[in-house]
């Protein structure tokens, strides 16, 4: 059960689109306006989810069969929803997640070729069909995003480059999937132009979020 004021927001987009920075900026602005904000991510959000993150984002791409990859992502989401997202919503908090089920539709569905209807049915069964009130999709040229993400991984000690090892065509499919999700359900999605300066992208994201926040006040 969701308490009054509880909101579930997700930020999605291709690798390198700037999701993490936008999540932190939005969280800071919401807290400045007196909202209790829970910042989380997928895969991850719980100890179990973080362990799964280490499994599915590292190593060679052929390490996991696409169906196994989907089931691992879903297992992480069950823990995430039940132990983090649902309790926070019941407390009236704003949950701000860096990725959620939209990424599963994009990466394991459009990217890997698994059935969207199966993914949606599995999600409904596993999470009680919990979807964000609003998903912000950071839209960026796939080549630009992939180059950014590969530079970030090269400059860090984090072994999370399994998807970045895939070709540009894969990432183009991911971008188009996110855009298609927004077109299919525009009331719950906002596509944000992720090109330009960080300040410009932040302003666009805040503007897209404002109508939902106004309605929740």
Automatic annotation (TrEMBL):
EC main group: transferase
Entry GO terms, CC: cytosol
Catalytic function, reaction form: dTMP + ATP = dTDP + ADP
Protein residues bound to ATP: 13-20
Presence of the UniProt keyword Amino-acid biosynthesis in the record: no
Domain of life: Bacteria
Any GO BP annotation: dTTP biosynthetic process
Enzyme nomenclature, EC number: 2.7.4.9
Keyword list, A-Z: ATP-binding, Kinase, Nucleotide biosynthesis, Nucleotide-binding, Transferase
Domain Thymidylate kinase-like, first and last residues per copy: 11-203
Single GO MF annotation: ATP binding
Recorded family membership: Belongs to the thymidylate kinase family.
Job description of the protein: Phosphorylation of dTMP to form dTDP in both de novo and salvage pathways of dTTP synthesis.
PANTHER family registered for this protein in UniProt: THYMIDYLATE KINASE, UMP-CMP KINASE 2, MITOCHONDRIAL
UniProt name for this protein: Thymidylate kinase
Organism of this sequence: Cereibacter azotoformans
């Amino acid at each position: 059960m969701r308490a009054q004021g509880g909101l579930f927001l997700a930020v999605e987009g291709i690798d390198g689109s700037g999701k993490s920075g936008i999540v932190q900026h939005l969280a800071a602005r919401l807290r400045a306006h007196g909202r209790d904000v829970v910042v989380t991510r997928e895969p991850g959000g719980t100890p179990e989810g973080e362990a799964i993150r280490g499994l599915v984002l590292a190593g060679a791409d052929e390490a996991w069969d696409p169906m196994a990859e989907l089931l691992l992502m879903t297992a992480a989401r069950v823990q995430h929803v039940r132990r983090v997202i649902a309790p926070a919503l019941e407390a009236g908090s704003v949950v701000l997640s860096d990725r959620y089920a939209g990424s599963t539709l994009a990466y394991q569905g459009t990217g890997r070729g698994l059935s969207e209807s199966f993914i949606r049915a599995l999600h409904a069964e596993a999470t009680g069909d919990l979807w964000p009130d609003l998903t912000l999709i950071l839209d960026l040229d796939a080549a630009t995003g992939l180059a950014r993400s590969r530079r970030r991984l090269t400059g860090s000690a984090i072994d999370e480059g399994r998807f970045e090892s895939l070709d540009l065509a894969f990432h183009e499919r991911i971008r188009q999937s996110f855009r298609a999700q927004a077109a299919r359900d525009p009331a719950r999605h906002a596509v944000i132009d992720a090109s330009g300066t960080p300040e410009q992208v932040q302003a666009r994201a805040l503007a897209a979020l404002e109508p939902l926040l106004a309605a929740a006040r």
